[in-house]
Write a structure and sequence with these properties.
Number of helices: 5
Oligomer: single chain
CATH topology of the largest domain: Outer membrane lipoprotein wza fold like
Largest sheet: 6 strands, mixed
Structural class: alpha+beta
CATH architecture of the largest domain: Roll
CATH class of the largest domain: Alpha Beta
CATH superfamily of the largest domain: Outer membrane lipoprotein wza domain like
Distance between the termini: 93 Å
Strand content: 15-25%
């Protein structure tokens, strides 16, 4: 019995050793750095092929014609109400030069004002309130009844927005409606929707909900090879410059 146990143990040891030998005799080829990265993160874009993702729930950025109220806690004589000029500048009480504010958020503007007034006042405490600013909107262009810029009031789908803009014209390619949505400050993302079925009450789940600043374009003929991301400067190809 003892001999049998010794033989069994020897058999197990030899079997394991054989397994090791087999594993070592058939080594797996080493992966290159590129293959290793692709196997770890599948379908991961390389390089700078995608623009930087726009932040969720972005802060409002000041536009031309916005009206702001500036309050100075310890020096109320500097309190003032200003309107942003078409070129994005404002003229401020007590400062020799105009300040460019277009594109800034309110917190960013406060930082800028503290820096500029720091040459005039000692550690100023400033607050800014937007009294009038650009309301949420969407733009509809191309083959719609009334192309233009419309107020975005409440939840509105792309199909509803087309209806607000006068519906499709007789030559509209309603199977290929383009939605341009801000992705970064300089880039828009392009998505395509088939609204023909939506208008017939079919596939209503494919009717996207609009966000402020969205732009819908309805072509007259089928368009191919439209990039997913486009620079904002190229939107003049689709929309009248007066709408942008």
């Amino acid at each position: 019995m003892r001999k049998f146990s010794i033989l069994a143990a020897l058999f197990v040891v030899l079997g394991c050793a054989g397994s090791v030998c087999v594993a070592q005799s058939n080594p797996q080829p080493a992966l290159s750095a590129e293959q290793a990265n692709s196997s770890t993160i599948p379908n991961q874009p390389t390089g700078d092929s995608r623009p930087e993702l726009h932040k969720r729930n972005p802060r409002y950025r000041i536009e031309a014609d916005d009206i702001m109220e500036l309050s100075f806690r310890y020096t109320p004589e500097f309190d003032q109400e200003v309107t942003v000029q078409p070129d994005g500048f404002i003229q401020l009480k007590g400062l020799p030069d105009e300040v460019h504010v277009q594109g800034l958020t309110v917190p960013e503007l406060i930082v800028e004002l503290k820096k500029d007034y720091g040459n005039v006042l000692n550690d100023p405490v400033i607050s800014v309130v937007l009294r009038d600013f650009e309301k949420p909107y969407f733009i509809a262009g191309g083959q719609v009844g009334k192309p233009g810029k419309y107020d975005l009031r409440g939840d509105t789908t792309a199909g509803q927005a087309i209806a607000i803009a006068g519906g499709f014209s007789d030559y509209a390619k309603n199977k290929q409606v383009f939605l341009f949505r801000r992705y970064t400050n300089d880039t828009v993302e392009v998505k395509v929707y088939n609204l023909k079925n939506v208008m017939k009450g079919k596939n209503v789940e494919e009717d996207p909900m609009l966000q402020p600043g969205d732009m819908l374009f309805v072509p007259k003929t089928w368009m191919a090879n439209v990039d997913r991301f486009l620079p904002r400067t190229s939107l003049g190809t689709y929309f009248s410059p007066g709408l942008l």
